[in-house]
Design goal:
The structure is a homodimer of 189-residue chains.
Chain A (H helix, E strand, L loop, with lengths): L13 E3 L7 H14 L3 E5 L4 E10 L2 E9 L7 E5 L2 E10 L4 E3 L5 H12 L3 E8 L4 E6 H10 L4 E3 H7 L1 E2 L10 H9 L4
Parallel strand pairs in A: 6-8
Antiparallel strand pairs in A: 2-5, 3-4, 5-6, 7-10, 8-9, 9-11
Chain lengths: 189, 189
Amino acid sequence: MKHPCGIRKNESKSVTYSNRGMGLEHDINLSNEYYLIQDKAVIHKKPTPITIVKVDYPSRLEAVIKEAYFKTPSTTDYNGIYKGKYIDFEAKETKNKDFFPLRNIHIHQIEHLRKVVNQGGIAFLIISFTSTGQLYLLKAEDLLEFIQKNTRKSIPISYFETHGYSIKYTYNPRIDYLKIVDHIYGGDV
Amino acid sequence: MKHPCGIRKNESKSVTYSNRGMGLEHDINLSNEYYLIQDKAVIHKKPTPITIVKVDYPSRLEAVIKEAYFKTPSTTDYNGIYKGKYIDFEAKETKNKDFFPLRNIHIHQIEHLRKVVNQGGIAFLIISFTSTGQLYLLKAEDLLEFIQKNTRKSIPISYFETHGYSIKYTYNPRIDYLKIVDHIYGGDV
């Protein structure tokens, strides 16, 4: 995995990273900020998991990471607390209109969702179908049932229509997924 | 914050990063792994928050982060679920025998703990006094009360003795902090 710096230098290309994860991630982060400011919930995106190999200290106060690698995530991206309850979810975008490819979710993340459900937590996916603008919340229980009963490598849109919950975009918060959580779990949350 | 690569090159020194965060962090990670395998709790350390500036792709399958910076954490390092309840804590080591310096905890982290308590979560610190081998769990409520009532910039060991809970090292899990959580929150957890 380690990159022998210099050898492939001419082949490599650099990209700026600043626009990565806009769209759904950005909207959810803004919604979480809204919930936080309103004292409604404390839900954060976890930092991207990386392995740091080399850090430079050009001055006493400054540290620059000069070599690091992305790690496969072992948990989901978002977790936190809402009305005393543990909340845990993964958010993904797809350009496909008719299905959501399961390869977008790592096996470790599915196992993590299963463990959270077993511990009594509230776990789900938020899937954005970017070409149609449709947005669904799918309970982890329904994701796990789909995987158990199917050998398909993607979840068809019809499964979201029958088992998922459509989320409408609103002004503030942009994606009010806790409204759906209230609806699903009712008085328990 | 950005580092104009090359200008300070001769001044900079590189360090390997692999041994950072051993000790307390290592023991807690092992304990969390034990809890996970035993289906007792799902608690993970969050990745280190960084800002990624430049990524190289020497091949299609490989991404190397070539420039990134550490960010001030806005939350604590550990969170998860135990018996349906949201758990959130920060773990810190100090070499001091008689006090724990509060500068080791960022103001954002203290605010985060306050918000978690307000949402009904279980929040605390685990502090390791490495020169004496003493280990304490201090509830976030007691940390917040100390800060409110004192202008001191450190918490004396006597406060841990009177308000905290001593944790004994055990074989497996190495640091059985959920035993203390059970003791404190009793039938609620």
